[in-house]
Amino acid sequence: MNYRHAFHAGNHADVLKHAVLLELCDALTAKPAPLFALDTHAGRGLYALDGAPARRTGEADDGIGRLTAPNAGLRRYLEAIDACRAEHGERIYPGSPWLLAHALREQDRIACCEIVPDEVERLRVAMASRPQVAVHARDGYGALHALLPPRSSEARIGRGLVLIDPAYENQMGEFDIALPALRDALGRFPQGTYALWYPIKLRRALQPVYRRAATLPAKSVLAAEVLVRKDDSPLRMNGSGLLIVNPPWKLDNRLRVVLPALAQALGEDAGAGWRMDWIVSPP
Ligand SMILES: C[S@@+](CC[C@H](N)C(=O)[O-])C[C@H]1O[C@@H](n2cnc3c(N)ncnc32)[C@H](O)[C@@H]1O
Fold this sequence. Notes:
Layout (H helix, E strand, L loop, with lengths): L11 H17 L6 E5 L6 E3 L3 H6 L17 H14 L3 E3 L1 H8 L5 E6 L2 H10 L6 E5 L2 H7 L12 E6 L9 H15 L4 E8 L6 H7 L7 E7 L11 E7 L5 H16 L6 E8 L3
Parallel strand pairs: 1-4, 1-6, 4-5, 6-7
Antiparallel strand pairs: 2-3, 7-9, 8-9, 8-10
The chain binds S-adenosylmethionine (SAM).
The site of S-adenosylmethionine has 20 residues, from helix 1, strand 4 and helix 6.
């Protein structure tokens, strides 16, 4: 495992993923019933954009670094970034565990899984003051099996949000692990909402993935994507997307505001854009 998210934190893919994650949290907390969130590939929770890894790649400059002006479509996301920076410093970027803890409530529970020991230790420190967060040093795919359906000590929690955010070190081969794991999780926790993040190099190469996603045993599946440039190079991450399984009611309306705002702010050339497709349409 060579991947370290500290080199990539705050890049355009993080911005998309985290803006959508916050919309998911807000939609799912519209009801008072408790929610269980599982972050299968959690990372370290907080990232220093002035640290050596982030400075070496400069990726955040083309991500969060482009969002310096107020942006009505991204208000929710930018408020969360501001809240993190008020707490931790101006050059900090929050990871998904911090954002989940920020957006969810006292009655909710959050399980974060990370496999790299050093990242786990940092994550424990970052989440130490968050009683609703449990950090697990374990394989996130295994956690999909072990921690779903969610249970609390008092009662079964019937609602859940699962973020699956792997590093794609084995490129398209990651889907051969992620999609069966998702299918298995849906078998045991069918009412959960799941978001699988994926990179886009050549979008047409993803057609088999959409076809496989269409066979998932889900009520509905939505693909939400932002390209920051034309997807004509297989060597670069030209954009990214999330397959959202069982999205909450009206999430698509929220994303119709967020995705164009992201494409406009992060777009680098005329090939930039956004799209949202129902892979499985709601009943
Ligand atoms: C893309 S990063 C996660 C970023 C994080 N979700 C966020 O949004 O801030 C992927 C993380 O997964 C970790 N990882 C890789 N394989 C894993 C596995 N099988 N189980 C759990 N974590 C894993 C990596 O060490 C890395 O920190």
